[in-house]
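Much of what follows relies on a compact textual record of a protein's fold. A record is reproduced here so that you can trace the correspondence yourselves:
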Amino acid sequence: MTNEYFRKLLLAVSLKACGDYDKIMRMITDRDFPSDEEIENAEQQIKSGYITYLDDEYPESLKQTNRPPIVLYYYGDISLLYKEKKAIAVIGSRECSDIGVEITQRFVSELATDYLIVSGMAKGIDAVAHESAIRAGGKTVAVLGSGIDYCYPYENYNLYRILRTLGLVISEYPNVTVPEIINFPMRNRIIAGLAKGILITEAKKKSGTLITVNWGQMFSKEIMCVPYRIDDESGCNELIKEGAYLVEDSDEVRLIMDGTGNLKKSLMQY
């Protein structure tokens, strides 16, 4: 059997499982495979491009993570997946403040000229990060928690269309798979896996953002947070207390991303 056959096999399995990682792994373990006809016709069932774990093009940064997605569906420039060393995940609150928006715009507009910006296309900080990267002439990757052809939230539809053309939109969920709650923590592992560093520009103490941070810590990513006033209910401040880098401008992010952050942190102790 050829490699092309196994690619189509994984695609057919993913389609049958609607991209659910655990279902896919159970099907593979139990050898509960689709029919030969379903395998042969699998590519006709999708509009998007796709890559599988077996492909040479599959990003090494995701292969090194826990529970790497078996199939990734995409629209846009797939080569952006291979820029992990120059990628920053910018994440934060869905219900963000004006200050959070301003901070995100400032950091991303200054960083996007040199770094790939990765986020989840959620409303709030995610959307601001994508939009700011595009306005700055940079590149950005959106990782969806819904099917690749299902824009969620719908209010970001115009952004979704732009990202498909000027950046990259990816998902492990095929076609118009409707998102379930569990999809978003799973989506967050891909965001963390694709970036060298994770920048949190605003977050509450109890926030889905912290799930991405947990994945990032598991994958040994650099965690960077913008500090807030002491009377704010700030998840960023809590993360800083737990050891995340405190960053006040984009130059400090660059120091950490370039690998000199540890040296700077050591010098600050004296």
Q: What stands out?
A: Residues 80-267 form a domain with the Rossmann fold fold (CATH 3.40.50.450). The first strand starts at residue 49 and ends at 52.
